[in-house]
Amino acid sequence: MSEPATLVALSAEIAACRACPRLVAWREAAAADPPARFRGQTYWGRPVPGFGDPAARILLLGLAPAKDGANRTGRVFTGDRSGDFLFAALHRAGLANQPASSRRDDGLELRDAYVAAAVRCAPPDNRPLPAERDRCAPYLHREIAALSRLRVIVALGAFAWEAALRWAEATHGSLPRPLPRFGHGAEAAAGPCTLLGTYHPSQQNTFTGRLTPAMLDGVLARARALAVSDEA
To answer: Three-class SS of residue 51?
Structure first.
């Protein structure tokens, strides 16, 4: 299959997954009992595939869908404050056609970028169990394999950083020891890609100033420069 067709087929497979009973129960319970501000809306309530440009050279990798964000809208980082912060930055970087996204059909398009999560179901307390993380990892590995032009992975937080390193080790052999440490602005080799770290655009980080728009802009500018230089 072509790259777009492969990603479409994989997205359908991801959305139908019921491999982790705890996560299935949590995501469906959240969909059945939304907070008052979302009452009356139809929740997605399923695993959330990645989204973006099939020819992307840059992958933005997060932790997992938010209970009332992507678990509600069905598109990664769509419908919550983290996504508001991220998509605004992608727009400033020229990687998105609009600065905001609130639902799947709102016209958002990514350019040279693809967004995904290491775990595809919303987890309790935003903390997947190690077994759930490992069970979900092959979806990420297959998604990355379908992104044949990929050159840069931007890890949105330490969980995504570790997931990217596990992908590199599983698909491209051993990694240096000690493992490269996560930090904002950190860089490491991950198979054929460069791995960049940034703090997750959660409210906990953006409201406290731990992550500012300028900080995320800097990481995205570096990602774009690496993506271009690696194909020069």
So the answer is: strand
